[in-house]
From TrEMBL:
The lineage of its organism: Bacteria, Pseudomonadati, Bacteroidota, Flavobacteriia, Flavobacteriales. GO terms for molecular function: peptidase activity. Keywords: Hydrolase, Protease. Residues 20-83 form the Adaptor protein ClpS core domain. It comes from Algibacter agarivorans. It holds the Pfam family ClpS. One of its GO terms (biological process) is proteolysis. This is ATP-dependent Clp protease adaptor ClpS. It comes from the Bacteria.
Amino acid sequence: MSTREKTSEELLLQEEVSTQNEIVLHNDDVNTFDHVIETLIYACDHTAEQAEQCAMLVHYKGKCTVKTGLYDDLKPRCSMLLEAGLSAEIV
């Protein structure tokens, strides 16, 4: 493989990685675990187990990435989390 091909492949890989965004959910003292879990199942298509694990991470670590993907897919999901009273952002 030539140097030019390898450089081109690395550049394509970097571009693909950089198009991924994340929804980060932040801890608060207002919402119950059940509400957070139900909202993650609804808004992010989590399984009950995924949602429970994310809720625990948010509680103990202060934040957790709950969904990764393209911005256009994440924006409505983040809006659903915000409308449900959760604290979330796309990074």
